[in-house]
Design brief:
The chain is built from 18 helices and 14 strands. With 490 residues, it is an alpha/beta fold. It folds into three domains: 6-130, Fumarate Reductase Iron-sulfur Protein, Chain B, domain 2 (Orthogonal Bundle), CATH 1.10.1060.10; 145-239 and 406-471, FAD/NAD(P)-binding domain (3-Layer(bba) Sandwich), CATH 3.50.50; 245-403, FAD/NAD(P)-binding domain, CATH 3.50.50.60. Strand 9 and strand 10 (365-378) form a beta hairpin. This is Glutamate synthase (NADPH/NADH) small chain.
Length: 490
Amino acid sequence: MPDPNGFLRYQRQLPKRRPVPVRIMDWKEVYPPAGEELIRDQATRCMDCGIPFCHDGCPLGNRIPDWNDLVRTGNWAAAAEALHATNNFPEFTGRLCPAPCEAACVLGIGDDPVTIKQVEVEIANHAFDLGFVRPQPAPARSGKSVAVVGSGPAGLAAAQQLARAGHAVTVYERDDRIGGLLRYGIPDFKIEKHVIDARLEQMAAEGVVFQTGVEVGVDITADDLRERYDAVLLAAGALAGRDTPETPGRHLNGVHLAMEHLVPANRMVAGLQDTTPIDARGKHVIIIGGGDTGADCLGVAHRQGAASVTQLDQYPLPPEIRTGLKDPWPTWPMILRNYPAHEEGGDRIFGVAVQEFVGDENGNLVAIRLAEVSVQRVDGVRTVVVTPGSERELRADLVLLAIGFEGTEDQPLLAQFGLTRNRRNVLDADRTWQTGAEGVFVAGDMHRGASLIVWAIAEGRAAASAIHDYLGAAGELPAPVRSDQQPLSV
């Protein structure tokens, strides 16, 4: 049983990040490996609740109290087994997930929640370091084959589940390396790419075949996939970046979508190119958007040597702690989120919106004109109201639009399968995760819209279960979520 006094004896504590002056000189992960004593102490804070709401906060249904207590007693092998029972890639989620499980931690009602995410990543690190992560090839082949389009966490999770069930799985990726946004969309200071490669080695040993540099719908058609495979899973993400074409001056040189900045920066770090067309060095950078992608742009700009960085958010400054009025426990709290990149420098301005991108006579960006705003909802319609007389200018040489994604891209494979995007620009699925095309399934952001990595993995696992059933295979695979399921909310 757990230590009944653990949460009384230990306070919430995270490992110290690498010093700012050191880490902005390289691209290595911000957090160094944590000491084993610290992680055991933090795991000891878990109360092993009779009704652990952290299970509901996480769509994967991770057995959090189980592996917390195993870490507390030093049984890392069993902890790794319990963790992998519900999560194919805890080394990804432990680094990248914002941890809705912690928002739903019962201890968080009257104290700081357990550091679930940190314990998780340390279990994953130990699992690799101590050799607990081994290939698990299927004992027998099913004779069925599946094509997975897209190699992000949803596609990879589905591929691993299906391969372990004995199906022949081929993953198609249009980029030159596997990983989707994990590979080129997220900077190395959040996840170094050898972490991805280690898991891909395991999957390859389990029989998953990876085809890179292949754009389905162009290099290979939908008819080709139907002829070669018994089922197809679409997991190509939601990469259509949200833009502001109506803002005056959007056409100016120096205004870019966030991914136009992040992708070449990641490719440079990987040694795949020597220069980047969008470099923040010596520039005054404005980042529009206050979420994860905006923080990624902020950290990259620091490491590229920006002269200054200012991050804009149209919403007002949120409180530092949960107020409980509109976000009661155990729902996701609307609080101020400080990322490691924020302690590295830069300014944040809340409650403002850009009214115009200002250029010179040569069409180059030189400034932005912004105004204070309030965001209101009338009859469910979101409206941004400008405060009269609040306009001012800020110098800007580079603007990065990190205001989210509009859905999956309109790509040839959709028309070839006879599929159309819904009003949210993603694909609908029935209760079996199947699209309107027979034998064609969808999972992850391509179905859900841009969301959390835990939701992508959960949907990939659930879609794999549905495909397994569709193929008439024996037994069942775990399906942690339904196709119509939504996050825990008020």
